[in-house]
Amino acid sequence: MKPAVLKVSSPEVASVFADLTAMQRWEVLRRSESPMTPEALATACAVSTPTILHTLDRLVEAGLAVRIKASVKSPRITYRSISSSVLFQYDDRSAEERRWMADQREAFKQFHRRCVDRAQTISRLREQDLRFFTSDTTTILDDGEARELLTILSEANRALQKVVERARERLRSAPRPDASTESRPYYLFLQLQELDQPELPIPTFLVADPPFVKRHLEELENRASEILAPREIEVARRLARGASRPKIAKELGLSVNTVATIGKRIYSKLRVHSRAELAARIQTL
Fold it and tell me: Mean pLDDT across the stretch 55-72?
């Protein structure tokens, strides 16, 4: 699915984008696999239903959410995110919009830091020298993601310890660096910290100027994952592996005719003519 492109020159978009709480509530909606009722979203965000309804009205006005009317199948009004991904576009030629975007980036950065500052505040001097690497990226992880990251960091830590031991051995033999060399001191800090209380997820989106938006959309047009629907991707993967239509139909609970129809649609969308071409086209899926 292509990302929704929203222009910050729109007052409604600018207003909701600058509201970090509203953007967090939108992120909860964006992550939901199915449309949510206001009551369900209010429960997920731990606020009252009237508060969520006010936020939803603003999200709909800004184009970040869609209101789905009640029907026989779904008797209650529900809401969903306009897209699984969103691009906020600003005009780089406008000094006012550049300043506004810089202010919003700083606001989000400070917001991220406040999520972890309850336990400890870390300050770092920004170095322009490319020989320095700094990162102050923060996000909210669930338990599974935290465990996965902990495993990665543990492996990285073992590798880092080898370097640290070599550095300590060097310092023992030569405590002071040779002033005649270009050797400079570096500071290393890694931290995975449990938060004191649950947090709503940090919103995920891109902010870019028109040239980047155009290049990004052109690139997405060539990605099979953006061209095909989820069911088409499931069928395409099996076709690429050489599975027969009856086997695919049985695995996915479809009729053979439906699989054949989906297959024709896949070939047409991707402009391929054989399973070999299909396999090459979707190898990144």
Answer: 92
Q: What is the average pLDDT across 163-174?
A: 73
Which pLDDT belongs to residue 38? 95
pLDDT tens track for 73-102: 778 899 999 988 888 998 988 888 888 888
Measured CA to CA, the distance from residue 220 to residue 222 in angstroms comes to 5
Task: Convert the chain into a string of H (helix), E (strand) and C (coil).
Answer: CCCEEEECCCHHHHHHHCCHHHHHHHHHHHHCCCCECHHHHHHHHCCCHHHHHHHHHHHHHHCCEEEECCCCCCCCCEEEECCCCEEEECCCCCHHHHHHHHHHHHHHHHHHHHHHCCCCCCCCCCCCCCCCCCCCCCCCCCHHHHHHHHHHHHHHHHHHHHHHHHHHHHHHHCCCCCCCCCCCCCCCCCCCCCCCCCCCCCCCCEEECHHHHHHHHHHHHCCHHHHCCHHHHHHHHHHHCCCCHHHHHHHHCCCHHHHHHHHHHHHHHHCCCCHHHHHHHCCCC
Confidence (pLDDT) at 193: 62
The two tokens of residue 38 are 């206001």
What is the end-to-end Cα distance of the chain in Å, rounded? 14
206 forms beta bridges with 87
Contacts of 209 (CB under 8 A, 6+ apart): 89, 90, 91, 92
CB atoms closer than 10 angstroms to residue 29? 24
Q: Both tokens of residue 136?
A: 């102050």
Torsion of CA 138, 143, 148, 152, to 10 degrees: 50
Q: What is the rounded radius of gyration, in angstroms, for the C-alpha atoms of the chain?
A: 25
pLDDT given at position 1? 59
